[in-house]
Fold this protein.
Amino acid sequence: MKKIDKLVLGSFWGPFFLTLGVVIFIFLMRLLMFYIDDFVSKDLDLATFGRLLFYFALLTIPTALPLAVLLSSLMTFGNLGEFFELTALKSAGISLTRAMRPLLIVAVGISGFSFWFNNSVAPWANLKGYSLLYDIKTAKATLNLKEGIFYNDLPGYSIKVDQKVKAAENSKTGDLLKGLVIYKHPTNGIESGNREIILADSGRMYTDKDRSYLVFQLFNGNDYQEYSDNSPISYSSAGTPAKGGQFMRNGFKDYRLVISLESFGIKRTDENQFEYHEYMKNLSELSALTDSLRKEYTNTSMSVANTSRQYYNYQFKADAVTKQKAIKDGKWVDSLLKKRAVAVPDLAQSALSQAQNILTYATSNVTYLTEKEKNVWRYQLESHHKFTQAFSIFVMFLIGASMGAIIKKGGFGVPVLIAIVFFIFLYVLTIAGDKYAKDGLIWVPIGAWLANIVLFPLGLLIMQRARHDSRLFDKDVYIIAWDRLKARWKNWSDSRSVSQSVSS
């Protein structure tokens, strides 16, 4: 490896990994801000939260790689130009393309890595990340009693507390609760209404060591129970049967109510439920699904015409033909015409009903076929994205290295601004192309490759300008061009005034 290659590569890797880490961090913060309401009060442990961030950090790598390559290559050649190292290389007979060669090889390698990552790692990370996110979103919030408000998230119970008194920091018995009202709702489907209520002056709430059960330790209260005529007599915690089998009141000084917390916490769902999505598939699976959806779409569209025949009836004689025959054959046909006139309303109602039926049938089939076709476009689009995201890294390298050689500015000032502008341009074109392709407005390959189609020629143009030492960002270039334009305008106006004076 030549010294020039070591110099360029040494200047590239530092900004590359720094930018990659910053972009991944920004995307993770966006994830947290978007789903912050789903994370609050879910009592997530660090292991679960760490796994979620790990999966989504993997998902952001394909998006972060083009920006990292763009900014790092721009900073690399911007620094070389700022400290006149590019000038020294050119004076030694080394061209700009020769100086870019090591980074060109690196960009091709990163593009290959991006394609492998999108095809192998990203589907697995999508499946793990979004299934875990779904489980977190559907998990119930942790128990949080508020003063004066009934809490109804515990299955079979409604709980209200008048006042909460904070316990000491080292206390293991929980906060002191005053004015407790606990309704027990029937869960066996036999009884209806609230037939048991517990009133207590005070109490404490805590969980067991395994956090599987919630315990209410109640003090100085009463347990009221009501029974229907067909229900058996139950026994209270004190062992006293209900008087008469209809109503019972139990007084207590110390009573423990144990409630299962099985409905709380995260329950993992079967990941196979999420495998239908195109983001969870690799290239071979996407190709197989696309072919099967195309065949299904073709078979359905071919069967529509045959099935629709059952909605049609055929009349072979029109009214005009019948009337003409009646005139020729005699008056005995008048009776038939009168009978036919009576049947006309029934015939019109039947025709209207059949027309409505076939309209409904055609509308439902159009909707069904449109959705099938959109599914085909979605899978095709994701197949193309396996390649487009990899190729965009090479395009961003062309733009970044060429722009760095032109602006001759390093650091995180102008390069960051230019990189953000081009990355936003890439992102907007990608989103627009995807939308148009999914809606069927443009051909799917055109929509998938729209950003690269626009930016790749732009990168080649900037590369050509960089090879010829373009002064695209020098202020004096535009000042000189403006002065020349004003001089031409003045000469044109002077010559026009002279010609007008001569003609007059």
Summary: Strands lie at 157-165, 176-184, 196-207, 213-226, 247-260.
